[in-house]
């Protein structure tokens, strides 16, 4: 039969075990808060294809004239670059389908590695650029609210 000390010890072990699974570190997110100096960031694309898959005019849908919700497929070749750009007034979600890609963000003090299955939230005036340091193309889906 269990005594009180045994029950407390068992409960403590159960809580410790459960908490070790509670909130794992989110992949593809900034782990070094701060800002990056993007003064020498690339301004021209390299090794990138950017295809609009579909777009919806938001004027008739939700009274946001001059805006589109669009989804694009980007393929960034090894050594490729998506140059510095801003998400001021242009929120986006980027999903990494395959490969991996490195993001250099104005909102993070260190580069962010994104791998297949990661999603990146781009909003709040964020400026950034992406580089593929891998050996295979990085394939991304980008859904954004675009001035169209």
Automatic annotation (TrEMBL):
Occurrences of domain Cupin type-2 (ranges): 74-142
SUPFAM superfamilies (UniProt xref): RmlC-like cupins
Signal peptide: 1-27
Keywords, sorted A to Z: Signal
InterPro entries the UniProt entry points to: Cupin_2, RmlC-like_jellyroll, RmlC_Cupin_sf
Pfam families the UniProt entry points to: Cupin_2 (PF07883)
Domain of life: Bacteria
Protein's UniProt name: Cupin domain-containing protein
Organism ancestry: Bacteria, Pseudomonadati, Pseudomonadota, Alphaproteobacteria, Sphingomonadales
